[in-house]
Amino acid sequence: MNVRAKYRMLTVGAVAGVAVLAMAGPALAHVEVSADKTTAGAENVTLTFNGEAENADAGIQSERVVLPAGIPPASVTLVKAPAGWTFKANADGFTVGGKALKTGTDASWSVKIAKLPDGQTRLNFKTLETYGNGDVDRWIEIQAAGQDEPEHPAPLLTLKPGAAPTTSATPSSAPTSEAPPSSEAPPSSAAPATTELASDEGSGGSSTWWIWIVGAVVVIAIGVVLTVTRRRKAAHPDS
Questions:
Q1: Residue 145: CA count within 13 A, CB half-sphere
Q2: Which of these, 30, 138, 148, 200, is most buried using a 10 Å CB contact count?
Q3: What is the number of other CB atoms lying within 10 angstroms of the CB of residue 82?
Q4: Is the four-CA dihedral 9, 13, 19, 23 of positive or negative sign?
Q5: 94 pairs with which residues across the strands?
């Protein structure tokens, strides 16, 4: 066998060896979530999370979960967590953590929520997994429906659609309740105008009579003065 042939065989063998090692290696770890009730809008639901350990140098120390829209942090309570771990509500979710677990040990914890959001069938729980040596795995990528799973997917909970909301009778009765105000409004709003109009007419009539009376008095007074003046002149022609 010549040197070139030996070189080709060694190259092929090396590539094959690398491929075998890659296939034999552990798959990338995930954080997963499941629920005891999987219908949108369900109440008093227990969510169970499992964070797979993938760090060869340290154990998992905490798990910070960002809740999806429609699940307020105040509605979440701790059910179960690794020994010594505590629960803390955050502005956008919650954190469970404590003493770092043994290297290679998965973290498992459960929480109860008051109610699953209505009308949603895909809930993503972004999670930051922190190890005792400070390393952080960010499981925060959202997997769109019908698309391949991203490299670091956020835990995904798939739900069944809930029952359609019951139609309320309030909308149909709304026009009836609004009808009286609309029919009564014109008379009530027109009443002040009518009253003002009547008062104006009354005051106008009164003013006219007073003008006639005052005018008559003035005319009579002038007549009296003229009469008296003429009589005085007639009685004293030389004055």
A1: 7
A2: 30
A3: 19
A4: positive
A5: 65, 89
